[in-house]
Write a sequence for this structure.
Protein backbone atom coordinates (compact mmCIF):
# COMPACT_ATOMS: atom_id res chain seq x y z
CA UNK A 1 0.00 0.00 0.00
CA UNK A 2 2.80 2.43 0.93
CA UNK A 3 4.60 1.82 -2.37
CA UNK A 4 1.34 2.36 -4.27
CA UNK A 5 0.77 5.74 -2.60
CA UNK A 6 4.35 6.76 -3.38
CA UNK A 7 3.89 5.66 -7.00
CA UNK A 8 0.70 7.72 -7.31
CA UNK A 9 2.46 10.78 -5.90
CA UNK A 10 5.45 10.18 -8.17
CA UNK A 11 3.18 10.13 -11.20
CA UNK A 12 0.96 13.04 -10.16
CA UNK A 13 3.73 15.37 -8.97
CA UNK A 14 5.90 14.70 -12.00
CA UNK A 15 3.02 15.12 -14.46
CA UNK A 16 1.81 18.32 -12.79
CA UNK A 17 5.30 19.83 -12.71
CA UNK A 18 5.95 18.85 -16.32
CA UNK A 19 2.79 20.59 -17.51
CA UNK A 20 3.47 23.67 -15.38
CA UNK A 21 7.07 23.96 -16.57
CA UNK A 22 6.07 23.46 -20.20
CA UNK A 23 3.14 25.89 -20.20
CA UNK A 24 3.69 28.61 -17.60
CA UNK A 25 7.21 28.37 -16.20
CA UNK A 26 7.72 32.14 -16.14
CA UNK A 27 4.77 32.66 -13.77
CA UNK A 28 6.25 30.75 -10.83
CA UNK A 29 9.59 29.12 -11.70
CA UNK A 30 10.59 28.34 -8.11
CA UNK A 31 7.28 26.66 -7.33
CA UNK A 32 7.31 24.59 -10.50
CA UNK A 33 10.93 23.50 -10.06
CA UNK A 34 10.18 22.50 -6.46
CA UNK A 35 7.22 20.45 -7.68
CA UNK A 36 9.53 18.74 -10.19
CA UNK A 37 12.00 18.05 -7.38
CA UNK A 38 9.19 16.58 -5.28
CA UNK A 39 8.20 14.35 -8.19
CA UNK A 40 11.77 13.14 -8.56
CA UNK A 41 12.01 12.44 -4.82
CA UNK A 42 8.76 10.45 -4.95
CA UNK A 43 10.11 8.42 -7.89
CA UNK A 44 13.35 7.63 -6.03
CA UNK A 45 11.43 6.76 -2.85
CA UNK A 46 9.07 4.47 -4.79
CA UNK A 47 11.97 2.61 -6.38
CA UNK A 48 13.79 2.33 -3.06
CA UNK A 49 10.71 1.09 -1.19
CA UNK A 50 9.68 -1.37 -3.91
CA UNK A 51 13.06 -2.95 -4.62
CA UNK A 52 14.73 -5.75 -2.70
CA UNK A 53 18.22 -4.94 -3.99
CA UNK A 54 20.92 -4.22 -1.39
CA UNK A 55 21.04 -0.51 -2.30
CA UNK A 56 17.27 -0.04 -2.06
CA UNK A 57 16.80 0.54 1.67
CA UNK A 58 19.53 3.19 1.98
CA UNK A 59 18.09 4.91 -1.09
CA UNK A 60 14.59 4.76 0.42
CA UNK A 61 15.85 6.13 3.76
CA UNK A 62 17.56 9.02 2.00
CA UNK A 63 14.65 9.85 -0.29
CA UNK A 64 12.00 9.68 2.43
CA UNK A 65 14.12 11.72 4.86
CA UNK A 66 14.77 14.31 2.12
CA UNK A 67 11.04 14.37 1.42
CA UNK A 68 10.26 15.11 5.07
CA UNK A 69 12.80 17.92 5.20
CA UNK A 70 11.47 19.26 1.91
CA UNK A 71 7.86 19.32 2.98
CA UNK A 72 8.76 20.95 6.31
CA UNK A 73 11.02 23.61 4.76
CA UNK A 74 8.84 24.39 1.75
CA UNK A 75 5.70 24.19 3.86
CA UNK A 76 7.09 26.69 6.34
CA UNK A 77 8.38 29.03 3.64
CA UNK A 78 5.05 29.04 1.82
CA UNK A 79 3.17 29.81 5.01
CA UNK A 80 5.55 32.61 6.06
CA UNK A 81 6.23 34.24 2.68
CA UNK A 82 3.67 33.69 -0.04
CA UNK A 83 5.33 36.28 -2.31
CA UNK A 84 8.02 33.88 -3.46
CA UNK A 85 5.40 31.24 -4.26
CA UNK A 86 2.69 32.73 -6.48
CA UNK A 87 1.51 29.20 -7.27
CA UNK A 88 1.43 26.08 -5.11
CA UNK A 89 3.97 23.29 -5.06
CA UNK A 90 3.23 19.75 -3.96
CA UNK A 91 4.73 20.66 -0.59
CA UNK A 92 3.12 24.12 -0.21
CA UNK A 93 1.52 24.70 3.18
CA UNK A 94 2.64 21.20 4.17
CA UNK A 95 0.74 19.58 1.30
CA UNK A 96 -2.58 21.28 1.96
CA UNK A 97 -3.57 20.94 -1.72
CA UNK A 98 -3.12 17.18 -1.43
CA UNK A 99 -4.97 16.71 1.86
CA UNK A 100 -1.72 16.96 3.86
CA UNK A 101 -0.68 13.54 2.56
CA UNK A 102 2.76 14.97 1.61
CA UNK A 103 3.30 15.74 5.31
CA UNK A 104 2.05 12.39 6.62
CA UNK A 105 3.57 10.17 3.90
CA UNK A 106 7.25 10.56 4.86
CA UNK A 107 6.40 10.01 8.52
CA UNK A 108 4.68 6.75 7.61
CA UNK A 109 7.55 5.87 5.27
CA UNK A 110 10.19 6.44 7.94
CA UNK A 111 8.12 4.49 10.47
CA UNK A 112 7.79 1.58 8.04
CA UNK A 113 11.50 1.60 7.20
CA UNK A 114 12.37 1.62 10.91
CA UNK A 115 9.83 -1.07 11.74
CA UNK A 116 11.02 -3.43 8.99
CA UNK A 117 14.77 -2.91 9.40
CA UNK A 118 16.75 -6.12 9.38
CA UNK A 119 13.90 -8.12 7.82
CA UNK A 120 13.92 -9.60 4.38
CA UNK A 121 11.11 -8.23 2.24
Amino acid sequence: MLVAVYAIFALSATARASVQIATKFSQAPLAYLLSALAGLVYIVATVGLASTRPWARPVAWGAVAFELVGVLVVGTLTVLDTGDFPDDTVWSAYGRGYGFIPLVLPLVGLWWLHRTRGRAR
Observations:
- The chain has one domain: 2-115.
- The chain has a mean pLDDT of 92.
- Residues 79 and 93 are 6 Å apart (CA to CA).
- DSSP finds four helices and no strands in the chain.
